[in-house]
Amino acid sequence: MPPPLMPKATAVWLVENTVLTFQQIADFCGMHALEVQAIADGEVGTGIIGLDPVANGQLAKEELERCSADPGASLELVKPRELPKIKKRGARYTPVSKRGDKPDAIAWIVRNHPEISDAQVSKLLGTTKTTIKAVRERTHWNSSNIRPRDPVLLGLCTQISLNQVIARNQADPRVAAKRGDAAPA
Question: CA 136, CA 132: separation in Å to the nearest integer?
Fold first, then answer.
């Protein structure tokens, strides 16, 4: 059973507000019974504010009452609700202040990850293949002012999405053959 969020704060609240045994609290919070006893004695967790597991939906009030009546029973977390499915991102708006950063991000990707295709860069940064080609060939209208900068730090993509594209390309044998990394068969 996974421990609740913020187990020490939950243990502090349970010690202060319930009649549960130290072992019951320790089992629920994923701690040792001596740690819970130290919390009760005031030796540990003096500055920790208790977190009510009933109020934040991790524990049912009936479950708390059931275990308070039976010292041998163990607390059970409430089953977590299913999270809503993440919607696919369609076309997205790029603020005017970020539009000037796109050529810098393209230059960074072209320099640091040449194995990433123009289509992948286009999808990752929300730009056109024409712009990518212009930056790559140094024919962009502002090429004298382009400085390669990390697109994650510029806020144009997430580190997770960039890592996924890089990992996909490293796993693809056709991309490795283009780079010359492929082992002879």
Answer: 6
Calculate the CA 13 to chain-centre distance.
Answer: 28
Q: State yes or no: pLDDT of 105 exceeds 70.
A: yes
Q: What pLDDT, in 10s, does the model give residues 124-134?
A: 998 999 999 99
7, 30 contact by CB (below 8 A): yes
Nearest partner of 29 among 166, 165, 44, judged by Cα: 44
Query: Which has the higher per-residue pLDDT, 75 or 105?
Result: 105
* Structure token pair of residue 13: 């609240």
Contacts of 81 (CB under 8 A, 6+ apart): none
Asked if 124 and 161 count as a contact pair (C-beta separation under 8 A), the reply is yes
pLDDT digits (tens, 9 = 90+) for 38-77: 999 988 888 888 889 988 888 889 999 999 899 888 888 8
| DSSP per residue, 105-133 | HHHHHHHH-TTS-HHHHHHHHT--HHHHH
What is the secondary structure of 50-99 as a DSSP string? P--TTTTTSS-HHHHHHHHH-TT----PPPPPPPPPPPPP-S----HHHH
> What is d(CA 147, CA 157) in angstroms, rounded to the nearest whole number?
17
